[in-house]
Write a structure and sequence with these properties.
By secondary structure, this protein is of the alpha+beta class. The protein is built from 14 helices and eight strands. The strands form two sheets. Strands 1, 4, 5, 6, 7 and 8 form a six-stranded mixed β-sheet that branches. A two-stranded antiparallel ribbon has the order 2-3. Strand 2 and strand 3 form a beta hairpin. Helix 13 runs antiparallel to helix 14. The longest helix has 30 residues. It starts with a strand and ends with a helix. The N terminus is likely disordered.
Length: 361
């Protein structure tokens, strides 16, 4: 992997003077996106995300108890703001003397990377646009991919994905990943079940040095995130643009969840799992299994069986077999889904659901 030199970013106090116009426009686009998609969540999930967003905006540590009155006032003010911007078009991003389309991340990065900043934009789940500006820690070249690793975040929307890929460019957000890992840790601590997450956490000294342990975990999982995003790019290149059109047509349906699970399994068979097995880091492998949702586990029970075998014996051969078989298997399932989409039957969602449910590996 090749590391490219990056200058030190401006201090937080200097950010607004260094890229004030771009930062202001990006923050406004975040508000517009949030206004249009806040209702995508259940009330419980929405409130949890808003609490986390409040914590981020106010730079409060994970251990801090959120002030109830201030949080309530902030929530009311934010929802009022969304009511005023929800119908607005996204703003162009001004950099220097020019303005750029907010989704032209490549060109914008060409203008701001040398100043120590990174920008990303794209479409996520439920067709929600995401916008982001953060400090640029590193640029890495790896097997034809360019990876941008960000540190502190200065503009983000309600949903802060730890990683996003745009073509062969992959954006990994250390701050968002750190927050996600802390939330996973806190979620496990509620009941402390004896599962893969327990084994992942046990690889770090969270009892004696929680801050250092979290930083080590972030450093480890940055590589895992990179492997998955590379797999996503590889899967996207194989499946083509019809796959994205299919996702848009299936938005917020059971079939969409199943289609995404198939693609995730394909991406992991192509890159994530082989990479983790090559690295041989138990913590990351435990964490990978811990983050498989019930749908993905039900679609690939052989993966869970192989993981349990590795845990008992230390032998990775069954996991390697699952990865190798998975590449052909999940590509076949995805190809069948695309064929159904192009055929456009009246009961498309039902037929896709049936195909996926019968495709367990």
């Amino acid at each position: 992997m090749t590391f490219l030199p990056v200058i030190e970013p401006a201090s937080p106090e200097q950010v607004s003077s260094a890229i004030a116009p771009a930062l202001s426009a990006t923050r406004n686009n975040c508000h517009i996106s949030d206004a249009q998609h806040a209702t995508d969540f259940s009330l419980c999930v929405y409130l949890l995300k808003m609490r986390e967003y409040f914590r981020w905006e106010n730079r409060l540590p994970f251990s801090a108890t959120l002030p109830h009155n201030e949080l309530t006032a902030w929530l009311t003010e934010r929802e009022r703001l969304w009511e005023t911007v929800g119908e607005q078009p996204f703003e162009s991003i001004p950099v220097g003397k020019r303005e750029y389309d907010p989704f032209d991340a490549d060109t914008i990065n060409d203008q701001i990377n040398h100043q120590g900043y990174v920008y990303s934009s794209g479409i996520g789940r439920n067709l929600k646009p995401h916008f982001f500006i953060g400090s640029l820690e590193e640029i890495r070249r790896h097997n034809g991919y360019t990876l941008y690793l960000s540190g502190r975040e200065y503009a983000r929307d309600l949903v802060a994905p730890p990683a996003m890929s745009l073509g062969t460019r992959i954006f990994i957000r250390r701050e968002s990943l750190r927050r996600m890992l802390w939330e996973k840790l806190e979620e496990w601590r509620w009941n402390k079940p004896a599962n893969a997450m327990q084994k992942a956490i046990a690889c770090y000294d969270f009892d004696s040095s929680p801050e250092e342990a979290l930083n080590r975990m972030v450093d480890n999982e940055i590589h895992s995130v990179m492997l998955h995003e590379i797999g996503e790019v590889m899967a996207g290149e194989t499946l083509g643009s019809d796959w994205e059109n299919l996702l848009a047509d299936l938005s917020q349906s059971k079939a969409e969840l199943m289609v995404r699970a198939v693609r995730d399994h394909l991406a992991d068979s192509l890159s994530t799992l082989p990479g983790l097995l090559e690295d041989g880091d138990p913590a990351s492998l435990h964490f990978y299994i811990a983050n498989l949702g019930n749908l993905r586990k039900s679609l690939c029970p052989t993966l869970i069986t192989a993981y349990e075998s590795w845990e008992r014996t230390g032998d990775i051969r069954k996991l390697d077999t699952v990865a190798r078989k998975g590449r052909e298997h999940w590509l076949s399932v995805a190809s069948d889904i695309l064929a159904l989409y192009r055929e456009a039957p009246a009961d498309l969602q039902k037929r896709i659901t049936s195909r996926v449910e019968g495709a367990a590996l």
